[in-house]
Amino acid sequence: MSPSVPLQEMIRAIRSARTQCEERGVIQRECAAIRAQFRQADNGGRSHNLAKLLYVHMLGYPAHFGQMECVRMIASPRYSEKRVGYLGAMMLLDEKQDASLLITNSIKNDLSHSSQYVQSLALCTLACMGSAEMCRDLAPEIDRLLRASNSYIKKKAALCAVHIVRKVHDLGELFAPAARSLLSEKNHGVLHGAVVLITELCERNPEALERFRKTVPDLVQIMKGLVISGYSPEHDVAGISDPFLQVRILRLLRILGHNNEAASDAMNDLLAQVATNTDSTKTVGNAVLYETVLTVLDIKSESGLRVLAVNILGRFLLNNDRNIRYIAMMSLQKIVGTDHIAVQRHRGTIVDCLKDPDASVKRRALELSLALVSASNIRSMMKELLIFLSSCPLELRAQAASGIFNAAERYAPSQRWHIDTILHVLTTAGGDVRDETVPNLIQLITTASELHCYTVHKLYRALLTDISQQSLVQVACWCIGEYGDLLLKGDCQETEPVQVTENDVLDALETVLQSHMSSPATRGFALTATMKLSTRITDNVDRIRSIVSIYGSCIDVELQQRAVEYNALFKKYDHMRAAVLERMPVIERNSPGHTNGESSGELVKEVQPVKVKEGDAAPTQQPANQVCDLLDLLGGSEEPLKPTSAQSGPAPGQPINTSNSSGGDLLDLLGGLEPVAFTPAPTVTVYEKNGVTLTLSCEKQSDSSMTVTLTASNSTDSDISSFTLQAAVPKSVQLHMKAPSGDSLPAHGTAKVTQTVVLNNPNKVNLKMRIRVSYTSRGSAFQDMVQVDSFPDSR
């Protein structure tokens, strides 16, 4: 290809290249030719070469070597070269390039040029790539051009001033007087630039906002002229007079009327006129109407005008264009809290949008439908939402289920309706619900004592129908274990009488245990339910014993441990089995951290922390709410029994704790040891900060063994959560920490958390203990370290 080929020929050669390598070869040869011609002192084809270089730049190839040529061409007196030079500067230069500073003087000279076209080139370049330094130097020139008599220059100067204000906020005051005077212009281009400039000034300066609120009557007058004006071929777009200017004015009115009653009153009539007279059959009209609606909803408008705005959005919901339906639902979502009644009128249309094939429209319709649920429409809305849940896309199923749960909890007309609704969701989308759904439903079932028979029958039938929904199966197993005797009676008045035998129930639970679809947690529920049934049936206890013994060698460690412990109940402690497996009491709601007072999935076992050095982070212990041992279940403890789990019996993965620091060792008690009178040990306060008090007491077990009891209380007026204690002792001392009684401290010291630590000091060294206290109070996390150098006299 010849070095002097025209631009069209170079484009044709590049497009005809069959491979990327061939294209690069063409461009490299042409760039080499352009470089050679740039070096020539007298080059008549400068603009021609720079134009070819700009095309190469548009293709993504390096063209930085043309920057200095742009600077030289901008300084040329010829308009044809200036035009290409300024175009090259806008494409090849930016404010980070040092070469951009070289054109500042040329731009300043061209802003005073006699030709309006040369002035416009300089204005466009400054507005495109002007740096903060260039804007400060040339701002007075732009202010002068804003007051010029030429409308062509004034509209470009206004847009250039917008760029300067964005770059240097302090220069906004310079352009404020000229910007206000531009509102009296008749040229629509100048008006458009003025409105954009005023909008930028108002958004960045509160003082300018107050000053320009006086221009609201002028803006209203301009807008009225556009609305009632006749056909103007110069500004008409699909029957709307200059919709671009109308949209800009409406946005500025929205800013000026926000939180200002006087400005809002001045524009109410105009907004009503625009909302009623604008044609909504065309996209252009819908754009103006949408801006009108946003303005009405953002200012202090009249109630009737707000209803009119909501009705316009309701019409948008019926539009065939999905984009219009989408923005309508986004706008309704923002105002559903303040204009709930007005939005409720369009509930049917919103619910119909749930059937839209577009996924984004469905998502917005679901969010809006959930926001419209109230006590008066809970039944009808829930019916529609449940229908949607059965056919909605997988990515929306979790959101829909969560929203239905929240709405049912807030507005449920009855407990039976609430239970039926949650069971319907679990049957339909049991695999997509949150983890807390199971304990929440269990808590609801325990409180509805009159519905226990109805619930266990319904869950039993659901279990026979489908065992793939893990959440549903877990709740069903729990209910069968707790209320299996009601299931076997078969005399429930709430449902059709069904005769269920003991073998039928055990077959169902054994199916869950053997199914490949059952998770380890679900098998834990089923095994515990099977064990519970051993005290509720009479003829199949041996079969239950056989089922439990099989899982004593299960590969799953948690399930194996549970089965071994249940086998121990059958063999060594069979006389205690009925008391241990009795029906769970009503589960009350506790602190927000333990919504249902349950500790599902937590391991209640003794934790042995690692010895730590000063400054090192101690390992985090898993908190446990309370530890109730077999003595507590039998009533051997002086303290009343408190429920700790929402599951039947111990939670899956939770071993049966057979010892308690305050109750003594169970095996020793069964061995016939005489009880020892308890004398309170002396206590000392080791920590007192932020309303949290930690006391320490000791009890000597032998010459080398000591039991330390740490007791924490909360004297503030707010609950404390995530409370944990960690301890470290010298290396020669053996430390054994038992599970804490809980991880939350209620306000005003209504309950305490205790932690028992057993110290074994065979070398009888001087005992020291470092304790780390961690907790969360009022949303803030706290962590402190205290050291105990001396212990109170032990008894």
Automatic annotation (TrEMBL):
Residues 679-792 form the GAE domain. It is found in: Cytoplasmic vesicle membrane; Endomembrane system; Golgi apparatus. Pfam families: Adaptin_N, Alpha_adaptinC2. GO terms for cellular component: AP-1 adaptor complex. It is a peripheral membrane protein. Keywords: Cytoplasmic vesicle, Golgi apparatus, Membrane, Protein transport, Transport. One of its GO terms (biological process) is vesicle-mediated transport. Residues 638-662 are annotated as: Disordered. Its main location: membrane. InterPro entries: Adaptor_Complx_Large_Subunit, AP1_complex_gsu, ARM-like, ARM-type_fold, Clathrin/coatomer_adapt-like_N, Clathrin_a/b/g-adaptin_app_Ig, Clathrin_app_Ig-like_sf, GAE_dom. Belongs to the adaptor complexes large subunit family. This is AP-1 complex subunit gamma.
